Amino acid sequence: MPTMRAVQVSQPNGPFEVVEREIPTPGPGWVRVKVEACGVCHSDMFVRAGAFPGMTLPRIPGHEIAGTIDRVGDGVHAWKAGDRVGVGWHGGHCFQCDPCRRGRFINCVNGKVTGISHDGGYAEYAVVPAESLARIPDALSAIDAGPLLCAGVTTYNALRNSGARPGDVVAILGIGGLGHLAVQYAARMGFRTVAISRGADKATLARELGAHEYIDTQAETASEGLQRLGGADLVLATAPSAEAIASTVGGLASRGKLLIVAAPAQSLSVSAMGLLSGKTVAGWPSGSSIDSQDTMAFSALTGVRPRTETFELDDAERAFHHMMENKARFRAVLVP
Ligand SMILES: [Zn+2]
Ligand SMILES: [Zn+2]
After folding, report:
1. For residue 124, how far is its CA from the centre of ligand 1 (angstroms)?
2. What is the per-residue pLDDT for 20?
3. CA angle at residue 201 from 225 to 244, to 5 degrees?
4. Do 197 and 206 form a contact (C-beta atoms < 8 A)?
5. Which domains does the chain have, with CATH numbers?
6. DSSP letter at 268?
């Protein structure tokens, strides 16, 4: 049996081990992707911790997969060997539950997660359901496509579904893995784009990414900064800090919306009184494969690109810690 190199977690709390595994064969409705790049995401910590509902170990993590199809299973007609494809967090759906019948595949009650329900992209090959595939445009390299499949689609799809309109004041909280893409998307979508982070040194970066304004929360609170700009119609929270997220509510304009795509471990504390001018606090669930495809097409069209650092599979452990310690500038990508 031919084998491949892969990185797996075999016990809770890791480590990531480099192993030889049999190259998997796609069953009916699935395809095999030769992985060319796979981004390292904060959510890969669920695999490392061995703590996600229904997940079993060993498991190969990775849900920012970019590569080329090298084999299709029976019944797959929309895709063929040689197609360049990406696979994100949304790893498949049942087509039969009520949310699926309404076309809300991301909310499927039997939904699969790439790299959690089945093995992901920290490997030379990955086998995935055909409905989880997104087409990669020619203009995007695999290394650039990888991070767009989770960090990218999460922010792009949240922004385009937020209700914000061209010219609105849209603030992006955090300019890390998600935030550095969100700032680019918001500016390209025609919003008056405000980046919020800590430290005066980030102002230059924020403007390079396209932000029109920068709020340094070491110099003023997020609320003060946003009020100075007339209040935000939308805050997109990408930094996983409950305190930082809650601190933006006072900076929303009346009828403004706080939209959360980060996953802080702590609960959010928000004054109910402060919401009575019609403010909303909501979350957004990334997107399904066609949303990923739209994200990549928009990125190719408008020049949005992730900033990446690449690592070999052998360095997955180092890449993961680099990301968790917030040292990655801005997205770590494994290249098998
Ligand atoms: Zn992710
Ligand atoms: Zn379903």
Report:
1. 19
2. 97
3. 45
4. yes
5. 3-150+286-334 (3.90.180.10), 162-283 (3.40.50.720)
6. P
Ligand nearest to the CA of 240: 1
For residue 61, what are the CA distances in angstroms to 9, 53, 247? 8, 15, 33
One-letter amino acid identity for 273? M
CA of 151 to the centre of ligand 1 (A): 6
Ligand nearest to the CA of 262: 1
Give, for 46, the enclosing helix (H) or strand (E). Answer: helix 44-49
CB neighbours of 288 closer than 8 A, spacing ≥ 6? Answer: 90, 93, 105, 106
- The tens digit of pLDDT for each residue in 22-81 reads 999 999 999 999 999 999 999 999 999 998 988 999 999 999 999 999 999 999 999 999
Q: How far is the CA of 286 from the centre of ligand 1 (A)?
A: 9
pLDDT at residue 166 greater than cutoff 80: yes
Tens-digit pLDDT profile for residues 84-134: 999 999 999 999 999 999 999 999 999 999 999 999 999 999 999 999 999
Going from the Cα of 80 to the center of ligand 2, the distance in angstroms, rounded, reads 25
Ligand number nearest to the C-alpha of 152? 1
Question: Measured in angstroms, how far is the CA atom of residue 165 from the centroid of ligand 1?
Answer: 27
- CB of 55 closer than 8 Å to CB of 44: no
For the entire predicted model, the pTM comes to 0.96
